[in-house]
Design brief:
By secondary structure, this protein is of the alpha/beta class. The chain has helices at 33-44, 77-96, 107-127, 144-151, 168-171, 177-184, 195-209, 236-244, 246-258, 278-290, 313-333, 350-359, 374-382, 413-424, 428-444, 447-458; strands at 5-13, 16-21, 24-29, 48-52, 63-65, 68-73, 128-137, 156-160, 189-192, 213-214, 217-220, 223-229, 264-271, 299-306, 341-344, 362-365, 389-393, 406-408. The strands form three sheets. A ten-stranded mixed sheet has the order 5-6-4-1-7-8-9-12-11-10, with helices on both faces. A six-stranded parallel sheet has the order 15-14-13-16-17-18, with helices on both faces. A two-stranded antiparallel ribbon has the order 2-3. The chain binds adenosine-5'-diphosphate (ADP) and 6-O-phosphono-beta-D-fructofuranose (F6P).
């Protein structure tokens, strides 16, 4: 019989990765902030994490790791295509990100989304003790709160959306709109990254379902559903310590040397996603080189673009466009052994990422829309020397908190170029002042605080 827990997290992905070692396959805790924040809460209460273990076919048997129960949910190849790649990442993802790419609507994807959400809800039911708290994460599982409440009215249910929540006009496009809204309203507390998103949600409940609300509380039959903002953050101490470690400091120096010791290193680190504004960043750099306002090898750019959702068409075409632009810049401005853009379509470990942050003079974070953007926060936390400059899109959730960044409208190419030049030539004293203010903020508002404020509001 499955052990039942008083605290359960339900997320599309499990917090562990399968790695191949000398002795065979092994699970390792994945390094993300969400896992770091929730691990102590889960471990203290013998909690359970319900999620997809990656891969298709039979799921591994439930197992335990570092005091946390892990309860894998299986996905078939068909689920992967229709629920994950289709409805989650070709319909909901673009729609919720201001439709920067056109969302695709398919009936068979919606059916799969419903079926897989029901599977997650059944798994959460199976592992939850009477009166347990269940915290559902993100846009892949928006139907789970109502499905779970239907099965288990005794549970306390929270939901957090990690990505933006769209304005009413855009949300209304979605054929499954009422079902999704009902799904979310199954929670007692719905959390968003931004205050505006939480307000949109409340207004949408009235607009679409005629529900009454007062402030941030929506009345749903005999229940109350709260809608509030909880901007997510990072494990600030962990990043500060990692970046200050001798290994990372030495590697950062080595990276700069390998790049030819340029005066300015410009860095981008993103999943290869069309919301991240990678192309506009490359274009700004190309134009500055063409106008002679920046020059190689004085300035070099490093763009890490982690492979992501590679079977989804929008991602395939984005990759072609980005790689064409990188090729064009290097063709026009590179020299033998001295490319203008070092493009890395790879995943890295935390140590290498931290070393890149320490090595970079300007970090370019230019999404067209982003729920938060943790890379921006990681860069600031990594700069214990208070050097470096963060160029940040106004359309990243992080911009609401990081007002001392070099903020820019990513839709304005001339502005991106001007701000890039400004960030690259900022006086060290001003750079330090900006960095320190942002670092103070990050030390207070870290991911622990995020998790605890959500759980407090939920009544934990
Ligand atoms: P998103 O959730 O949309 O991918 P975020 O910036 O919020 O964007 O979070 C991305 C996370 O993935 C960060 O914690 C970052 O350190 C990590 N990451 C980004 N690129 C890489 C990479 N190439 N290798 C390993 N981790 C990466
Ligand atoms: O932050 C949004 C998000 O989709 C998370 O839910 C997810 O873990 C991450 O980005 C990476 O995406 P994926 O799980 O599709 O690889």
């Amino acid at each position: 019989m499955t052990a039942r827990s008083s605290f359960v997290v339900v997320a599309n992905r499990m917090p562990v990765d399968q790695v191949i070692t000398e002795t065979g396959r092994e699970w390792q805790r994945s390094p993300g902030g969400l896992v770091t924040a929730l691990h102590p809460v889960l471990a203290a209460r013998g909690g359970t994490w319900v999620g997809w273990a990656g891969g298709v076919g039979d799921a591994p048997e439930p197992f335990e790791m570092e005091g946390v129960h892990l309860h894998p949910v299986p996905l078939t190849a068909d689920d992967l295509e229709r629920y994950y790649e289709g409805q989650s990442n070709a319909t909901i993802w673009p729609l919720y990100h201001d439709a920067v790419e056109t969302p695709t609507y398919r009936r068979r994807w919606r059916e799969a989304y419903r079926e897989v959400n029901a599977r997650f809800a059944a798994a959460a039911d199976e592992v939850s003790a009477h009166g347990a708290t269940v915290w559902v994460q993100d846009y892949q599982l928006q139907l789970v709160p109502a499905m779970l409440r239907e099965r288990r009215p005794d549970l306390k249910i929270g939901f957090f959306l990690h990505i933006p929540f769209p304005p009413i006009e855009l949300f209304m496009q979605m054929p499954q709109r009422a079902e999704i809204l009902h799904g979310l309203l199954g929670a007692d507390l719905v959390g968003f990254q931004q205050r505006l998103a939480a307000q949109n949600f409340v207004r949408l409940a009235r607009h679409l379902l005629g529900l009454r609300y007062s402030g941030h509380v929506i009345k749903v039959e005999d229940r109350q559903v709260k809608s509030r903002a909880f901007p997510i953050s990072i494990d600030t101490t962990e990043m500060e310590q990692l970046a200050a470690s001798p290994t990372v400091q030495a590697r950062a120096k080595q990276i700069r040397a390998e790049l030819g010791d340029p005066a300015t290193v410009v860095l981008g680190v993103d999943r290869l996603d069309y919301t991240k504004g990678i192309e506009l960043r490359l274009k700004a750099f190309r134009e500055l080189l063409a106008e002679g306002r920046m020059a190689v090898p004085d300035t070099v750019m490093v763009q890490v673009a982690t492979p992501s959702r590679e079977r989804v068409e929008h991602y395939q075409t984005l990759r072609l466009r980005v790689e064409q632009e990188v090729g064009r810049i290097n063709g026009d401005f590179g020299r033998v052994g001295m490319p203008a853009v070092h493009y890395l379509h790879q995943s890295y470990n935390r140590t290498e990422l931290a070393a890149l942050y320490v090595a970079a003079d300007v970090m370019m974070v230019t999404p067209l829309r982003d729920g938060m953007n943790l890379v921006a926060k990681e860069y600031v936390a990594a700069r214990g020397d208070s050097g470096g400059a963060l160029l940040l899109s106004e359309f990243a959730g992080a911009a609401s908190e990081m007002r001392q960044a070099f903020l820019v409208n990513p839709y304005d190419p001339e502005a991106v170029k001007e701000v890039l030049l400004k960030a690259a030539t900022v006086e060290p004293a001003e750079a330090r002042r900006r960095m320190r203010t942002m670092q103070r903020q990050l030390r207070t508002y870290d991911v622990n605080r995020w998790a605890h404020s959500f759980l407090n509001e939920l009544g934990e």
